[in-house]
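Lab manual, section 2.4: Encoding a predicted structure.

Procedure: take the sequence of the chain (105 residues), apply the prediction step described in section 2.3, and record the output as structure tokens. A sample record is shown.
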Amino acid sequence: MQRTLSTQARRKTSDAVLQVMAMGKLPDWAEDLSRVMQARLPEMFPASIASRSPLFNQMIVNRYAVGQGIKAHVDIKHRFEDGIVVLSLGSTCVMEFRCVCVCGG
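Recorded output:
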């Protein structure tokens, strides 16, 4: 599928694509997957999100080698404040989420 640079970014190491980001119109397979999730796992989403069409308007696909993973980081709140869905294919995945406290001082 051909996409413009404004809607897709790729990060490569040697010949392997490790990360693909897409915003706006997602690939057909991603929209199909979101429809399946919406139909089969309705309790997973609050009503305000479950009723959206399309369910998602952005995605990041990461490919990791065995033993590799994502480093600790903080996501931009306004971009992800309605939630993040994680789907692991091909192996198990352990993720740890923590609240970030903003302390006055």
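Check your result against the sample. The beta strands are 8-13, 16-23, 58-62.
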